[in-house]
Amino acid sequence: MNKRIAVLPGDGIGPEIVAGAVKILQTIGTLYSHQFELTFADIGGCATDKTGTPLPNETITICKNSDAILLGAVGGPQWDSLPVEKRPEQGLLKIRKALNLFANLRPTTCYESLAVASPLKKDIIEGVDLIVVRELTGGIYFGTPSERTVIDGKPGAVDTLQYKNEEIERVIEKAFEIARTRSKKVTSVDKANVLETSRVWREIANQVAEKYPDVLLEHMLVDNAAMQLIRNPKQFDVIVTENMFGDILSDEASVLTGSLGMLASSSLSEAGPYLYEPIHGSAPDIAGENIANPLATILSVSMMLRLSFQLDKEAAIIEEAVNNVLNKGYRTRDILSPNSTIVSTTEMVESVNKEI
Amino acid sequence: MNKRIAVLPGDGIGPEIVAGAVKILQTIGTLYSHQFELTFADIGGCATDKTGTPLPNETITICKNSDAILLGAVGGPQWDSLPVEKRPEQGLLKIRKALNLFANLRPTTCYESLAVASPLKKDIIEGVDLIVVRELTGGIYFGTPSERTVIDGKPGAVDTLQYKNEEIERVIEKAFEIARTRSKKVTSVDKANVLETSRVWREIANQVAEKYPDVLLEHMLVDNAAMQLIRNPKQFDVIVTENMFGDILSDEASVLTGSLGMLASSSLSEAGPYLYEPIHGSAPDIAGENIANPLATILSVSMMLRLSFQLDKEAAIIEEAVNNVLNKGYRTRDILSPNSTIVSTTEMVESVNKEI
Ligand SMILES: CC(C)[C@H](C(=O)O)[C@@H](O)C(=O)O
Ligand SMILES: CC(C)[C@H](C(=O)O)[C@@H](O)C(=O)O
Hints:
2 copies of one chain form a homodimer.
Chain A: E1 2-10, H1 14-32, E2 35-40, H2 45-51, H3 57-64, E3 68-73, H4 88-98, E4 103-109, H5 122-125, E5 129-135, E6 143-151, E7 154-164, H6 165-180, E8 185-190, H7 196-210, E9 216-221, H8 222-231, E10 238-241, H9 243-256, E11 264-268, E12 274-278, H10 295-307, H11 312-327, E13 330-331, E14 341-342, H12 345-355
Parallel strand pairs in A: 1-2, 1-3, 3-12, 5-10, 8-9, 8-10, 13-14
Antiparallel strand pairs in A: 4-5, 4-11, 6-7, 11-12
Bound molecules: 3-isopropylmalic acid (2 copies).
One 3-isopropylmalic acid (IPM) sits at the interface of chains B and A.
């Protein structure tokens, strides 16, 4: 197989963890005779420093000419005081829009060997296996107006939550498709008792559900979902929701297992390329220290192999290698537990590499 | 002391738990020679059934003529298919607006005797004592347009998140005032990396902070706040945020301790009357069975005595009585733990009453 991959390390620990994941990708390429042609490009604060914008046109072009994209993380305090359009996270928002990445998939799985790191009690967290499907290119993130204004003669500001029906429909369909390959339950999260967009969302979810009689659809209000994720996360299979609710709930879900440093995500468009990245951020406080956990990025690579290239066997090999390394007790410090062995970023990458 | 109190039992378990709280209020009145003049009024589904609207004008008038308001809970499945404006929760939204209840205070305290019921591990939850101050009369709950519309020639819908600067300022000031009486830390939660209203929110928080040099202000993004509440809830003292974020985060916070049935809330306006209610809902599934937990409503009464009537001693007596009853091992089934004694709603009320 011959594939072009755009690699966007970004800021903070981004370069370190991406280097590790690239190494694993290359090992897979060598062992199974795939050509992975990598093109590196800038995004985030480092891009602003070099070019004045967090998402240079060159990066967009490179991404569009690729079969898949691997992203590290963006952001850091040194860019916090820049004008909005130059800040690192604008690079993220723009790449989502430029590539039409409308569905963000964030699985949360409880690794048995790491359950001890969870803030939740064992009986609540063990066996959790859910995925949040977050709408990523619509809603209040992109609606206009979003500006300072005058309201009833007084200074104020406004943001706009807007959705076209078709934007709602396609992401809910995606959620149902995914549920079919899992436990066949979709929880659609909205605030239909307050928002008109949510009432439309709920109607469309009901319509889509008719096409998937084998999948169970349940509606849940966002405030209740925030509670249920803590009380009984095992009740969930696929959660689908709009952009802002998805931002909040997927981050909430990501800390349940206590191993945020293990969680990968993918962002899908209609025709590709898809984007893969760890859920965690750029952790500027530990950047360059060779202590960051590379596993979420390595698992993002295995997601890429599976979803973008249908290389299921190769993906499974990476996942197994990660599991083996965990079972041997190797841990970066974010997932440390009693009786485990602390390893550095590069040591962790090496261990996984050996298992492959 | 002579005070008029509007009592709005509402739907589901509302009438039972309010009856219990009223009993405690009357005991306090008798023992300490206060006249509490109670006027009952309808809100929610029962009001729609009787009058066609979930908040009859008569109820608004009664509330406006009171010194404080005690509310049970509203809602139930039998009203779910009514047109929006007749649904029970519209009664809530309308009373907030009619009485200008702009600041919703939701404390989450970990009762030592109940910590075992928490979904979180003991070391994370023990000692938690935070309060969410939620803006309650603005934001996306009340902004216009909120309607179906056409976007780029396609059917869609829109909601509007809008704030006047003065609405932001007054609720943040309230949070700082409250922090002064507590551990002197305010965490202002926003999504300033995406929303213009949040950027204004952050600026105003910084301005207000200058007037309270004794209080520490920290900013936190809403997605991070959703994580931090689970990872390390002890870091928080006062959290202040806009309406929708407050809805989600205060519900999330309310399940941390595992004793939602214990949590009271108050909603404050500039000139009063204030409204007091339990945080939990109307629990239609257990309505009428005499098993609901009346303690959150009883504690709402003690909040009322303290905040609206400055009856600190009487408030403390109720809180002590509740603590004593818990220490004796009496529990309604929602907070059941090993070696405790199950009691009914009325038995729980009786136990608290005896302690007073
Ligand atoms: C950085 C920020 C704009 C972004 C978002 O809110 O979408 C981030 O929180 C995420 O979830 O990827
Ligand atoms: C019933 C609903 C409209 C209400 C809200 O969202 O404000 C409720 O969830 C609450 O928090 O009081």
